[in-house]
């Protein structure tokens, strides 16, 4: 289901129809402004952030984390190669739900896997995108 195809005000919230399950794919496309510092893509339950994906240009990394009952877990910051996002350029992030993790690719290149901290995928009911970016498309 395509939820948006034009630039939208941020943060942008999208309900996830149905439920998440292994092989379910979420796609977010946009443009990173020239002076961007950070943006985020969150997969959320009603109360928690199951997956926080946070490219940080001011730190030259992509932070991943989970927030449960208001408490953040331990950040993951390592990347297999250089920061895949560039200021002033477009991007497409594809998040695929696997059996035990989120698999993330950027512009068609595999980037990372993030193990589920919240095991009940079905409880993830919405997507939030915000920060410094021009959002062009979300597909859930």
From TrEMBL:
One Gene Ontology cellular component: cytosol
Keywords of the record: Lectin
Domain Galectin, first and last residues per copy: 12-140
Pfam (any one): Gal-bind_lectin
Family annotation (Gene3D superfamilies): 2.60.120.200
Domain of life: Eukaryota
Family matches, as InterPro entries: ConA-like_dom_sf, Galectin-like, Galectin_CRD
PROSITE patterns: GALECTIN (PS51304)
Molecular-function GO terms, alphabetical: carbohydrate binding; galactoside binding
A biological-process GO annotation: negative regulation of type II interferon production
SUPFAM superfamilies registered for this protein in UniProt: Concanavalin A-like lectins/glucanases
PANTHER family, A to Z: GALECTIN, GALECTIN-9C
Protein name as catalogued: Galectin
Organism: Octodon degus
Lineage of the organism: Eukaryota, Metazoa, Chordata, Craniata, Vertebrata
Gene name of the encoded protein: LOC101580239
